[in-house]
Design brief:
By secondary structure, this protein is mostly helical. The protein is built from five helices and no strands.
Length: about 180
């Protein structure tokens, strides 16, 4: 790839042309993206709270400050969640079209799959619990996990699944005409 000033101006021009051809996100897509962004910011805020020594939402007696591996994971999760918040917005904002489509879709599908697969086993437990078919009652920690924590993960996964599908469809390029003319 050439590295001349002219080449540097062609790349943004191509991105701008691509952005002009793609229809804007629908209102429901923007609302979904803002909800996913909020989901990520709330989770980043909890990770920040836990990293600073807070314990609400953790199992009784647990503190991330006293558990080095979980503390490190927590510190990694904060910027990842903030990046996920930006990704949610990139899926519906004009500036998101300036990034390579494949990169944006990979991030969106990665978020969606990670969250859904994280929560899926607990969703089975939730259905069993709600159907009254559970042999043993849920402990306080399990109750929080099955009724709050894991459904929150599933919500995030579903939001990103919807956003990824909508972005994928909205940014799909039409096939060239059979005779080669556009």
């Amino acid at each position: 790839m050439e590295s001349t000033p002219a080449a540097e101006h062609r790349i943004p021009a191509r991105a701008t042309e691509r952005a002009r051809r793609i229809p804007p996100a629908a209102a429901w897509q923007r609302r979904t993206a803002f909800t996913a962004c909020a989901w990520m910011v709330v989770f980043a805020a909890f990770h920040t709270y836990w990293a600073l020594g807070g314990t609400f939402g953790l199992p009784p007696g647990e503190s991330l400050v006293d558990n080095t591996p979980l503390f490190v994971i927590d510190l990694i999760a904060i910027p990842m969640n903030l990046g996920g918040a930006a990704l949610a917005l990139a899926l519906v904002q004009l500036w998101g079209l300036y990034f390579p489509r494949r990169l944006v879709l990979s991030g969106a599908w990665g978020c969606a799959l990670l969250m859904v697969f994280h929560a899926a086993p607990a969703m089975v437990d939730l259905v069993v619990f709600l159907a009254g078919q559970r042999d043993k009652p849920l402990t306080g920690e399990d109750r929080f996990s099955v009724l709050v924590y894991e459904p929150y993960w599933m919500l995030g996964g579903l939001l990103f699944t919807v956003l990824a599908l909508a972005f994928q469809r909205r940014t799909r390029q039409p096939a060239p005409a059979p005779d080669g003319s556009d």
